[in-house]
């Protein structure tokens, strides 16, 4: 798999912004955890020694240990999430497969995806799936078995099946991107539930349209609701099946120059009409981006062709062997351009929404701990000064007593001396008499 390997070692990918930020914040939280544990041990020892720290403070410190551990756990699970929506058969599953460079999700004509399918990376080279509400790992040997497993399950359209795919098989999974595939927006009446259950923590949304037709009311309505529930969601629009336009008789190459020029003109007209509508939708209707940003969010691609090209590449063949129609190279480049912009957008957005919260929590925990420690330090200083004062007082007293004692001793000495002299005098007097 020459191309895959080349991509996997490409650490210039914009996704690395998220990967590096995640590593950094995890390391910082590791240090915070150590510091909190050490401080708690110290505080508990202080409590045993003297009445410097009370029970409430000790308990508060212990609560920080749990808080930090909980944040660390969430951090380990943080990822970048992209959700795909659009009408049935527009090619949502095919776009995900093209990005994953492998046919992982079932795709086909008719209503294929019948519940939410989340594809995420698994460690240890294992492929398995897990149904909502169960921890059981159902082994997946191949894609056919996965498709069968998904079809056999009588799942509600809002429920979620998690597909774990070996990280090393795709750089996007390795870098913690999680893909959410959905059933067509036209087959459900529960769109609000969909948004509440699967979209609120998505970093990017991809609306997959069919370039052969125009955006439907159901597709528009869905994104209106998304943008009401989330402030400024990041939305990309893919006009998929663009290869089909190249096969349109009116756009095909002609032997006469005049007919050929007309064909190119009308091809461009269709493209600019779609582009204008998509930009208007993002800017004027949803008001989620300005004209310039919106122009960078609309693409004309062929998911099926891209997937075929990538499968050829993985076999060591040139990608154009996967071409479906004329103009393959342009569509292939456009798909890669979409991926690049998508990667930039998702990693920046995920860093902001996910890590900003964690870093401000970390700051407030360490700020609270610092002010508590400052208080304790102040109390210890007062306590130490008090002891010092007592010591000084005692020393003064001892010194006073010593002086008194010396004086008394001196006086006693004098008295004894005088007494001895007096006795001696009396004795010699008596002897003389
Ligand atoms: P549901 O899961 O039913 O909602 O459909 P979906 O949106 O996931 O579409 P899916 O990926 O299953 O594709 C539907 C059919 O369209 C499949 O037969 C695909 O091979 C085909 N298809 C998808 N993308 C393209 C494309 O870019 N060009 C062409 N020609 N066919 C495509
Ligand atoms: Mg599908």
UniProtKB/TrEMBL annotation:
<keyword id="KW-0832">Ubl conjugation</keyword>
<keyword id="KW-1000">Mitochondrion outer membrane</keyword>
<keyword id="KW-0472">Membrane</keyword>
<keyword id="KW-0812">Transmembrane</keyword>
<keyword id="KW-1133">Transmembrane helix</keyword>
<protein>
    <recommendedName>
        <fullName>Dynamin-type G domain-containing protein</fullName>
    </recommendedName>
</protein>
<keyword id="KW-0342">GTP-binding</keyword>
<keyword id="KW-0547">Nucleotide-binding</keyword>
<dbReference type="GO" id="GO:0008053">
    <property type="term" value="P:mitochondrial fusion"/>
</dbReference>
<dbReference type="GO" id="GO:0003924">
    <property type="term" value="F:GTPase activity"/>
</dbReference>
<feature type="domain" description="Dynamin-type G">
    <location>
        <begin position="76"/>
        <end position="339"/>
    </location>
</feature>
<dbReference type="GO" id="GO:0005741">
    <property type="term" value="C:mitochondrial outer membrane"/>
</dbReference>
<keyword id="KW-0175">Coiled coil</keyword>
<dbReference type="GO" id="GO:0005525">
    <property type="term" value="F:GTP binding"/>
</dbReference>
<keyword id="KW-0378">Hydrolase</keyword>
<dbReference type="GO" id="GO:0051646">
    <property type="term" value="P:mitochondrion localization"/>
</dbReference>
<feature type="coiled-coil region">
    <location>
        <begin position="391"/>
        <end position="433"/>
    </location>
</feature>
<keyword id="KW-0496">Mitochondrion</keyword>
């Amino acid at each position: 798999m020459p191309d895959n390997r080349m991509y996997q070692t490409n650490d210039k990918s914009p996704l690395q912004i998220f990967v590096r930020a995640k590593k950094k914040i995890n390391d910082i939280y590791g240090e915070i955890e150590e510091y909190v544990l050490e401080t708690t041990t110290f505080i508990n020892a202080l409590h045993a020694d003297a009445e410097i720290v009370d029970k409430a403070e000790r308990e508060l410190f212990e609560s920080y240990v749990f808080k930090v551990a909980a944040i660390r756990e969430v951090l380990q699970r943080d990822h970048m999430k992209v959700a795909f929506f659009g009408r049935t058969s527009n090619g949502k599953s095919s776009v995900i497969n093209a990005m994953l460079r492998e046919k992982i999700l079932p795709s086909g004509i008719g209503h294929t995806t019948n519940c939410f399918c989340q594809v995420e990376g698994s460690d240890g080279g294992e492929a398995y799936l897990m149904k909502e509400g169960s921890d059981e790992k159902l082994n997946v040997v191949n894609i056919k078995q996965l498709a069968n497993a998904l079809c056999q399950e009588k799942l509600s359209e809002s429920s979620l099946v998690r597909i774990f795919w070996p990280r090393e098989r795709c750089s996007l999974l390795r870098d913690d991107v999680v893909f959410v595939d959905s059933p067509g927006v036209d087959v459900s009446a529960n769109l609000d539930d969909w948004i509440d259950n699967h979209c609120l923590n998505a970093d990017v949304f991809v609306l997959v349209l069919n370039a052969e037709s125009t955006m439907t009311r159901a597709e528009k309505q869905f994104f209106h609701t998304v943008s009401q529930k989330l402030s400024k969601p990041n939305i990309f629009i893919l006009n998929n099946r663009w290869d089909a336009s190249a096969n349109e008789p009116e756009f095909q190459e002609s032997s006469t120059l005049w007919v050929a020029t007309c064909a190119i003109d009308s091809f461009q007209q269709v493209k600019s009409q779609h582009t204008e509508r998509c930009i208007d939708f993002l800017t004027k209707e949803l008001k989620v981006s300005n004209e310039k940003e919106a122009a960078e969010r609309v693409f004309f691609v062929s998911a099926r062709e891209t997937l075929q090209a990538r499968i050829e590449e993985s076999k060591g063949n040139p990608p154009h062997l996967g071409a479906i129609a004329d103009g393959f190279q342009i569509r292939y480049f456009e798909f890669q351009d979409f991926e690049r912009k998508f990667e930039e957008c998702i990693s920046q957005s995920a860093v902001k929404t996910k890590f900003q919260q964690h870093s401000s929590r970390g700051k407030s925990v360490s700020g609270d701990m610092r002010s508590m420690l400052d208080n304790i330090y102040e109390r210890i200083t007062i306590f130490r000064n008090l002891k010092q004062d007592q010591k000084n007082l005692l020393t003064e007293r001892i010194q006073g007593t010593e002086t008194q004692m010396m004086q008394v001793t001196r006086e006693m000495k004098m008295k004894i001396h005088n007494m001895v002299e007096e006795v001696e005098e009396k004795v010699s007097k008596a002897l003389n008499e």
